[in-house]
Amino acid sequence: MLTEIARAKLNLALHVRARRPDGYHELETLFAFVEQGDVLRLAPADTPRFRVTGPFAAALAGEGDNLVTRAAARFAESFGGGAHAIELEKHLPVASGIGGGSADAAAALRALARLHIVPLDDPGLFAIADALGSDVPACLLGKTAIGKGRGEQLQPVTGMPGTPVLLVNPGVAVSTAEVFRRWDGVDRGPLGGDPLAGRNDLEAPALAIAPVIGEVLAALAAQPGVTLARMSGSGATCFALFETVEACAAAAVAVARPGWWSAETRLV
Ligand SMILES: C[C@@](CO)(OP(=O)(O)O)[C@H](O)COP(=O)(O)OP(=O)(O)OC[C@H]1O[C@@H](n2ccc(N)nc2=O)[C@H](O)[C@@H]1O
Ligand SMILES: Nc1ncnc2c1ncn2[C@@H]1O[C@H](COP(=O)(O)OP(=O)(O)O)[C@@H](O)[C@H]1O
């Protein structure tokens, strides 16, 4: 039995530069990862088996087309390896801008690669990740990196490991495609040398769909010891970076609301 943590992805900054003819958008983003994540367990089996457990299992109950099973099918096509029993313990809210599904798919690819002795930097693994979704290559890499293109052109950069982070989701699922559709088409400029001085250009279109995101951002920005408060990805999860673990813990209590999910964690 192999265990992989599917760590939540954050976009510390996300600049949308252009709408492409293929329907995707050119991005410049700073990807980072936190300790908090889903847990994926995988073992060889006679027939393929997949089950989802954990606090957010119900949010995926009706969906036959899980990114994990798609990743496993693509891996088998490329590398063989037979059938597997996979358990996904779902701790991250679904469709929430922290790449839960993408992280799960990447964790499945990492576990399968370990089991079948495929190098983690095999170009075939990255090709599968790229075909599964724009965020999956970044999640496969799992390191702080600048992402360009639709997010798949990755350049690792020095991160801020250990930085305390509070994640807050107001309990509304937001469709990534719908948020991109509402982007106003204005290129507000490149990422620049200090991405933390940047923006998330999807905040405005996400707020138009889910105004409660504004409440989350205001609540986070008002906390003592906060160094950055921003939305991640297409939302609705927002994050705040803190100077100390104590400030992060105090903020978690201060911003708690009925129906809101939050997690105290750290950057990796
Ligand atoms: C916005 C981001 C930022 O990291 O994160 P999330 O909010 O999903 O976490 C990603 O670009 C999301 O990546 P991912 O969730 O893998 O998206 P995909 O499945 O590839 O695409 C879903 C839909 O989003 C839109 N899309 C996605 C990526 C991109 N660069 N431009 C787009 O326009 C397209 O309409 C696409 O059909
Ligand atoms: N293992 C999975 N976890 C979460 N969502 C999944 C998974 N497999 C497929 N999906 C689908 O992917 C969509 C986007 O989910 P997710 O990756 O959590 O959000 P986001 O891309 O906003 O970060 C969900 O609405 C769901 O339909």
Automatic annotation (TrEMBL):
It comes from the Bacteria. The active site is at 9, 135. Pathway: Isoprenoid biosynthesis; isopentenyl diphosphate biosynthesis via DXP pathway; isopentenyl diphosphate from 1-deoxy-D-xylulose 5-phosphate: step 3/6. It holds the Pfam family GHMP_kinases_N. It is an enzyme of class 2 (transferase). This is 4-diphosphocytidyl-2-C-methyl-D-erythritol kinase. ATP binds at residues 93-103. InterPro entries: GHMP_kinase_C_dom (IPR013750), GHMP_kinase_C_sf (IPR036554), GHMP_kinase_N_dom (IPR006204), IspE (IPR004424), Ribosomal_Su5_D2-typ_SF (IPR020568), Ribsml_uS5_D2-typ_fold_subgr (IPR014721). Transmembrane segments: none annotated. Gene3D superfamilies: 3.30.230.10, GHMP kinase, C-terminal domain. It comes from Sphingomonas naasensis. Residues 199-245 form the GHMP kinase C-terminal domain. One of its GO terms (biological process) is isopentenyl diphosphate biosynthetic process, methylerythritol 4-phosphate pathway. Catalyzes the phosphorylation of the position 2 hydroxy group of 4-diphosphocytidyl-2C-methyl-D-erythritol. Residues 66-143 form the GHMP kinase N-terminal domain. Keywords: ATP-binding, Isoprene biosynthesis, Kinase, Nucleotide-binding, Transferase. One of its GO terms (molecular function) is ATP binding. PANTHER family: 4-DIPHOSPHOCYTIDYL-2-C-METHYL-D-ERYTHRITOL KINASE, CHLOROPLASTIC. It catalyses: 4-CDP-2-C-methyl-D-erythritol + ATP = 4-CDP-2-C-methyl-D-erythritol 2-phosphate + ADP + H(+). Its EC number is 2.7.1.148. Belongs to the GHMP kinase family. IspE subfamily.
